[in-house]
Amino acid sequence: MARVIYGIWDGTVHDNRGKALFEIPDAPGFEGFDTFNQGNSIRAFVGDRGFFVFEPGVNLLDALWQYMERAARESCGKCTPCRVGTGIIRDSLAALLRDGVGSGGLGTLVELAEQVRSTSLCGLGRTCTVALCGALEHFQDMLVEGARTASGQQHGMSYVTAPCIEACPARVNVPRYIDYIRDGMPSHSLGVILQKYPMAATCGRVCVRFCEQACRRGLVDEPVGIKILKRYVADHESHLAQGWFSPDIVRDRKPGHLKVAVVGAGPAGISCAYHLLLNGYPVDVFEARNEAGGMAACGIPSYRLPKDVLRTETDIVERLGGRFFYGQRLGHDVSLDGLREQGYKAVFLALGCPEGRLLGIEGEDTSLEGYQPGIDFLLRVHDHVESQADASLSGVVVVVGGGNVAMDCVRSALRLGAREVHLVYRRTRDAMPADHEEIEAAEKEGVVFHYLTNPVRIITRQMVDSAGVTRDRVVGVEVVDMREGEPDARGRRGVVAVSGSGRVIPCDTLIPAIGQQMDSTALSPEDGVDVDARGRVVSDQTTLATTRPGVFAGGDCALGPSTLIQAMATGLKGARSIDDYLRYGRVRFFPRSRMRRIIRDFKPLSQQWVDTPVRHLYRIHAQELDPAYRRQLFDEVECPISAEDAYHEAGRCLRCYRVYSVITEAAIPQCDD
Fold first, then answer.
1. Which residue segment(s) compose the domain that 340 sits in?
2. What are the φ and ψ backbone dihedral angles of 537, each rounded to 5 degrees?
3. Helix and strand tally (H, E) in the chain?
4. Does one domain contain both 147 and 49?
5. How far is Cα 264 from Cα 287, in angstroms, rounded to an integer?
6. Which of the residues 55, 265, 491, 507 has an alpha carbon 20 to 30 A from that of 555?
7. Closest-CA residue to 431 (of 512, 361, 485, 510)
8. Rounded distance, CA 235 to CA 190, Å?
9. 3-state DSSP: the chain helix, strand, coil percent, rounded to 5?
């Protein structure tokens, strides 16, 4: 258990020195915070809100020196207090460890630490001396003791992050790539992104922006436009990026017998193949459809993601020496046993969730005329745009759902000629999981939204088609009003039907878009890969290893329906685990990943605004095609921003870097991450 001997956190002093161990309470919010890696206890933790010492014998002075040494290295140098002050503090702490504390030795440090905290211009400078200031004010005796008993550097490590980095599933160093834009080096900016995944231009168009939701700039005016900046550098440097990738850039080429199979060419599979190829492995990608990209290719309409942009990035796999095998559906054309027999030493399952879920209401029948599951509908839209296959609509269309797939369906239905398009969602607008920008775009284009409304019955009528065949056809959907109930354990309000509120929405086409699932025929019990009750591949959250040795899984088939950035993040993690599995027979311990789990689980990263001097600068919004015009065609809606706009937007970043350090009992295994 993490018992605080002494420390200060959020201004609250904890001093349990002299108490017996059983008398010391657990650290608030740090329950279970005891070991860093197996058998290696965490002795102290230093962060942007203070510090905790968990074990006797910790040299607080050395712990703060390690912390400030990293802070000084991370200073961008653009303001004097942080650039100069952190360096002076670091050197002063080192001198105290070396020479001891003389008369007035700490007085100057008190003044300097407070000056750095109060006058720096970025979050790093404003927070990096918080722990030191607390120690100087409340625990000077422990600093003096540390100077007296210093006997070498303690074991530990430091980690630098920011709210936007931790919010990003791929942990892209967002402030760094924004800094490069501000410094006029977009190619360097793109390089930061490509360290994590190959689909930068794609992500710059369709990312759901977890990073912007965490952006501290939003507490001042509006979050930084991180997504449009990503698209800017990807588009601006596309000609250069295409020339970067070839087999020649791979230095540590592995022998041919260590080949890896990736099953599924969606974002997770492409990302995994990309990182494996960069690590020198021979990689073959097996894809059920006749093109790469997964749902990004066939499920995201061209008005959001032009397919030539996507193809340029999925082609990176071939430019690095990988191979695609199309028309290879797992469980039908290829099997796990067959891949093993072909000599593949590891397999990454990136199957996606290509099947839609049914509404489960009275009258539902997938053979009904006018009934089109959302995923099937978007596949028809894709074929229409790419090959001019007929997918026209007329009359009234009702789409059921509240996610991005539902938004894609309603906006595509308008473009295919529907006279009216209605969206039915059982909860409120605020509860919709869809990207708020997609909701606003659909509203501008004329979609009619029905919130707190739920379908209960499909209404059909027998009709004779042009060939004289009698068919049951959708002519409407009966819905009822819903009202919100009490919040559940997660804080989400349930909804219940309002008695007597039933009504009918007449329609010619009904499109359910309420969820997706993995192809149930892809895996059988004989494959040795467990699937849970929700139809997801069972895999270890850390390693992505499945229940079959040498087989790993990521993306939607393991996560359930997720986002493109989440899928690509699992591709990177899967490639790392496969590399370790083939080289060492196990997955190694990654210290930076452990620090990320600490930040995720114990939330030391403050959610509060750090008082930095900021001039209000509202974000640049990309221009869009006029709604009345764009609803008639599938051309890309959002226009690129200019270099001037990109520079302006990059200048709004507050560089909210934070430093976290741990002191441990033993040395931490080092590993690139």
1. 251-354+518-590
2. -65, 130
3. 26, 22
4. yes
5. 5
6. 491
7. 485
8. 10
9. 40, 20, 40
Q: What is the CATH number of the domain that holds 558?
A: 3.50.50.60
**How far is it, in rounded angstroms, from Cα 521 to Cα 516?**
15
In sequence order, the β-bridge partners of residue 444 are none
The pair of structure tokens assigned to 570 is 């699992």
pLDDT tens for residues 129-152?
A: 999 999 999 999 999 999 988 888
Contact 347, 552 (CB under 8 A): yes
* Tokens standing for residue 46: 């230093």
Judge if 362 and 510 occupy the same domain: yes
Alpha-carbon distances, residue 212 vs 441, 597, 637 (angstroms) = 18, 21, 21
Are 387 and 491 members of one domain?
yes
Q: For residue 656, what is the enclosing H or E element?
A: none
Domain match, 544 and 482 both: no
**What is the number of domains present in the chain?**
3
Is residue 286 assigned to a domain? Answer: yes
pLDDT tens by residue, 414-467: 999 999 999 999 999 999 999 999 999 999 999 999 999 999 999 999 987 777
Do 350 and 324 reside in the same domain of the chain? yes
User: Among 481, 515, 549, where does a domain finish?
Assistant: 515
Largest CA distance in the chain: 103
Alpha carbon separation from 520 to 266, 287, 557 (Å, rounded): 18, 16, 11
The answer to whether residue 493 sits within a structural domain is: yes
β-pair type (355-356, 516-517): antiparallel
DSSP structure class, residue 638? B
Which tokens sit at 522?
């892809």
| 560 CB burial (10 A radius; 0-12, 13-18, 19+) | middle
Give the DSSP letter of residue 264. -
Mean pLDDT of the chain: 91
Nearest CA-CA partner of 511 in 416, 598, 591, 410: 410
Q: What is the DSSP string of 180-247?
A: HHHTT-HHHHHHHHHTT-S-HHHHHHH---HHHHH-GGGGTSS---HHHHHHHHHHHTHHHHHHH-SG
3-state secondary structure 1-38: CCECCEEEECCEEEECCCCCHHHCCECCCCCCCCEEEC
Chain-centre distance for alpha carbon 608? 22
CATH of the domain at 88: 1.20.1440.230
Tell me the C-alpha distance between 641 and 429, whole Å.
Answer: 29
Token output for 375: 């995923």
Domain stop point among 496, 515, 534: 515
pLDDT digit string (tens) for 158-210?
999 999 999 999 999 999 999 999 999 999 999 999 999 999 999 999 999 99
| Cβ neighbours for 325, distance < 8 A, ≥ 6 positions apart | 284, 285, 286, 287
Phi and psi at residue 472, to the nearest 5°: -85, 130
Are residues 301 and 410 both part of a single domain? no
How many of the other CB atoms lie within 10 Å of CB of 603? Answer: 12
Do 407 and 488 lie in a common domain?
A: yes
What is the C-alpha to C-alpha distance for residues 670 and 251, in angstroms, rounded to an integer?
22
Sequence letter at residue 551:
V
Assess whether 58 and 117 both reside in one domain: yes
Provide the residue count of the chain: 673
- Taking residue 279's Cβ as centre, other Cβ atoms within 10 Å add up to 20
Three-class DSSP labels, 422-459? EEECCCCHHHCCCCHHHHHHHHHCCCEEECCEEEEEEE
